[in-house]
Structure formats: structure tokens, C-alpha cells
Amino acid sequence: MLRQRFTDALKEAMKARDELTVSTVRLVIARLKEQDIEARGRGKSEGIGDAEIQQMLQGMIKQRRDSIVLYEQGKRPELVAKEQGEIAIIERFLPQQLGEAELEAAVKAMIAELGAQGMKDMGRVMAALRERHAGQIDAGKASQVAKRLLG
Questions:
Q1: 2-91 CATH
Q2: Could you tell me if 124 and 114 are in contact, meaning their C-beta atoms sit under 8 angstroms apart?
Q3: CATH classification of 100-150 is 1.10.10.410, yes or no?
Q4: What is the pLDDT of residues 19-70, one digit of tens each?
């Protein structure tokens, strides 16, 4: 379970005195607690599941990538390096991402499986991809591939 992996990673990083990993994993744990509190408000007493945790981690990575663009524009290489380090740490907790060829094959297979004909089926294709390949796909890249294949 991902929750235990966060705790174990934090302990290991503290023992190794790896400050970047300690701070990044603490951020992840704090965000997870926020998500759990929100989930309890929606009636989920046990908190969020692994699939939702993976989505949360992908969102955290996206935030850091957006920050990298801004830091590069502002000529702040030290902050770019910190964000890239945090991305690498967060990615350790996600399943291996599909490569370009694998992503295209997955999208083609989903289109064939659903019998998708055109752009009107884009939402169904993307929903099915997110469900089947949770944590393994970049939704933005998958969307581009699906648009190209359906359009």
C-alpha cells in the first residue's frame, strides 16, 4: 500500500539525512492527509484509495512541472533543480509510465475495444484509459494521441 511506502521512505530518508527526500515525502504525506479529510466530508471514512493517491501524486508532479517553466523564465536554475529533484522523488511512488509507443498502442486498443468512431467518443476513450491504466499514463499525452487517432 502506498501509505506504508511513504512512511518507510520518510524513515529511510531521515536516517540517510537526505533533506530533499524528507521534505518532499513530508509534503506528500501532508497533501494525503488533506485529501483524507476532504474524503471524510464526502462520506469515505477510511480516506482515499491508492488510485486516488496516484492521481494526487500526478497532480503534484504537474504543479512542479508548471513551476519549472516559470522558474526557467525567471532565470532561477537552483529552483528548477529543486523542483526536478522533487519530481524524481514523487515518481518513485508511481507505477512505471507507459512510453510513447506503448501509449499509442494502449489508445489504439481502447478505441478498437470501445468501437470509437470520432471525436464524439473522446470522453469515453479517455475515461476508459484512465481507469485501466491508472498512474501509468500522462492524461495530456494520451489526449493528444487520442485526438490524432480519432480526428
A1: 1.10.1510.10
A2: yes
A3: yes
A4: 999 999 999 999 999 999 999 888 888 888 888 898 899 899 999 999 999 9
